[in-house]
């Protein structure tokens, strides 16, 4: 498994960072996970744009342009496909503020950001094949994270705790809602529902990540189907009475949720619209 760390390609086991790296001490960094199917990165440009946006928000400034990031992704795909990890990879990219001489909250001047990347085997999802029929069960929980969930931060403690809450309850994931009962997202995915033929998802704001898979799905629906789409606040109750619920992410693709808090979603099977859209999503050639 070949990784990249601060300008060098090396076996992942040999990659070392300083314990004074602020990514380690403060969780001060941003990251991306980009799916690469059969050697081709999917939606690379929007992923890199989101990474650059996150770096701007944190005032981290490595002197890297879009092409440098693209080259890094392509090299990780090539080196790890050669090493035969898998032909379907998740490319993980990570930038943290870098190592300081001491632990002090303020942003230090002139640090060299830490840039790290590696590849892992991507679990099977509809991105690989339209025949993957995995479904998910979820719990619901009040969203106890922070007010900047639109930044893809490496500080994932809130997400990890919510994900674990789902696992501890014997479910796959946790769908989160704020104190008003509005759904935000899941702990590692965006949320969609279908009601009477309309596809609905919560609008982008600071309480959820602008998911790239979410964007791709909305793009396909709007440009290639007549299916009505709404981006609007979603009440938890609407999820419980939805015809279909889906989670989207770069590692899950678009996956149906068939149980919420132990109760079936509609018939408790992957829904009709998902069955129709799944091959369309799989075959679509994204031009970004
Ligand atoms: N929301 C959260 C909290 C996530 O961690 C993720 C992905 O890991 C997503 C949404 C989905 O984003 P994307 O489709 O860009 O993978």
TrEMBL record:
InterPro entries: Aminotrans_IV, Aminotrans_IV_CS, Aminotransferase-like, BCAT-like_C, BCAT-like_N, Class-IV_PLP-Dep_Aminotrnsfr
The keyword Transferase is assigned to this record: yes
Matching Gene3D superfamilies: 3.30.470.10, D-amino Acid Aminotransferase, subunit A, domain 2
Domain of life: Bacteria
CC cofactor: pyridoxal 5'-phosphate
UniProtKB keywords: Aminotransferase, Pyridoxal phosphate, Transferase
GO MF, one example: transaminase activity
SUPFAM superfamilies associated with the record: D-aminoacid aminotransferase-like PLP-dependent enzymes (SSF56752)
Annotated PROSITE patterns: AA_TRANSFER_CLASS_4 (PS00770)
Keyword check for Cell inner membrane: no
Family in the record: Belongs to the class-IV pyridoxal-phosphate-dependent aminotransferase family.
PANTHER family: AMINO-ACID AMINOTRANSFERASE (PTHR42743), D-ALANINE AMINOTRANSFERASE (PTHR42743:SF10)
Name recorded for this polypeptide: D-amino acid aminotransferase
Naturally occurring in which organism (per UniProt): Biformimicrobium ophioploci
């Amino acid at each position: 498994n070949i990784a990249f760390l601060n300008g060098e390609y090396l076996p992942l086991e040999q990659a070392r960072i300083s314990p004074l790296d602020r990514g380690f001490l403060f969780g001060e960094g941003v990251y991306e996970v980009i799916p690469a199917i059969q050697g081709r990165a999917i939606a690379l440009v929007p992923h890199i744009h989101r990474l650059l946006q996150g770096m701007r928000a944190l005032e981290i400034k490595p002197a890297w342009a879009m092409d440098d990031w693209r080259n890094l992704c392509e090299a990780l795909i090539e080196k790890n496909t050669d090493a035969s990890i898998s032909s379907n990879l998740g490319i993980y990219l990570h930038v943290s503020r870098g190592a300081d001489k001491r632990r002090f909250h303020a942003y230090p001047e002139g640090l060299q950001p830490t840039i790290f990347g590696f590849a892992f085997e991507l679990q099977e999802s509809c991105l690989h094949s339209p025949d993957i029929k995995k479904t998910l069960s979820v719990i619901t929980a009040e969203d106890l994270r922070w007010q900047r969930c639109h930044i893809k931060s490496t500080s994932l403690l809130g997400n990890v705790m919510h994900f674990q809450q789902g696992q501890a309850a014997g479910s796959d994931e946790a769908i989160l809602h704020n104190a008003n009962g509005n759904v935000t997202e899941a702990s590692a995915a965006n949320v969609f529902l279908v009601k009477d033929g309309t596809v609905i998802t919560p609008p982008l704001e600071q309480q959820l990540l602008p998911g790239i898979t979410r964007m791709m799905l909305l793009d396909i629906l709007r440009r290639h189907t007549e299916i009505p789409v709404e981006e609007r606040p979603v009440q938890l109750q609407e999820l419980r009475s939805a015809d279909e619920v889906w989670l989207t992410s770069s590692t899950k693709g678009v996956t149906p949720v068939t149980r919420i808090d132990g109760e079936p979603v509609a018939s408790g099977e992957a829904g009709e619209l998902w069955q129709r859209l799944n091959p369309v999503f799989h075959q679509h050639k994204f031009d970004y």
